[in-house]
Amino acid sequence: MTLKFARLGTAGNEQPAVIAQDADGAEKYFSLRALTNDIDGGFLASDGIERTRGALDKGELPEISPEGLRIGAPVARPGAVVAIGLNYTAHAAESGATPPEVPVVFLKPTNTIAGPFDAAPIPPSSEKYDWEVELAIVIGKEASYLSSVSEAEGCIAGYALANDLSERDYQIPGTAGQWTKGKSLPGSTPLGPWLVPSSDIDAGNLRLQTLVNGEGRQDSTTSDMIFDPATIIHHLSQYMVLEPGDVIITGTPEGVALSGRFPFIQPGDVVELEIEGLGRQRQEYFRAQTGSPARHGASDPVRINA
Q1: What span, in angstroms and rounded, lies between the C-alpha atoms of 120 and 269?
Q2: Rounded CA separation 281/275 (Å)
Q3: DSSP percent split of the chain into helix, strand, coil, nearest 5
Q4: Which residues of the chain have pLDDT under 50?
Q5: What DSSP string runs through 230-274?
């Protein structure tokens, strides 16, 4: 039985839930309050996914209605968001870079995490805000100085869909261009709608797509990644401790605005992203105002069939 873990409710007040099919194949939502207060590192590290399967089999989880509830990021604010750059050969080429021989690694602030349907702010002075559909790994077991790629596979709790929004003028040009500046903006890591356990999905060959205002931009598969998830985790574990609940976003395929083939995101644009088996995101973009906080937690219409 494939499970989908979700967090429902207003930003900062989400309730943990699991989506599972009944005997007739209909999807139903069940509260996880009996098992945990949130879907976080503690829940994942304490065998929370398998405990959820057992509780569902025993009928111990109450059914809930998701109607009218915002869909938040499927994991509570992680301890770290680690990102991998240039991890698809064609994207490296459109970026003017040589495909890397080892993973390109950078960090994103954890406060960039947003819900998959939250209204998305474009920075006040930004002219080159860009989309990046990415497979996200959620860590379920501490990873440090792992001895092998096979050992790294056991550290994966599951996968989710992410958008690594990037301001290219902040990221790249001139002596002040820095990836950290271009990838740390408020709401720049929409995550979800679901976390799917690693045992329930083959992450090695999933279709990734991006549409902007209904027009296709990205269309590829995770089989084109240069470094697969387990290789990435093994590599990272040699340089940092990955903890349960941490999120790794694994790079984007070709088809971003940086390629010069498409315009960058403008206020009023709608960006839709999808990864096979991991659901869909939809963000409507607005211009953030100088001196005003970004509406990072704003709700968009609830989309139950994401």
Answers
A1: 10
A2: 9
A3: 20, 30, 50
A4: 297-301
A5: HHHHHHHHTTS-B-TT-EEE----S--GGGSSSPPP-TT-EEEEE
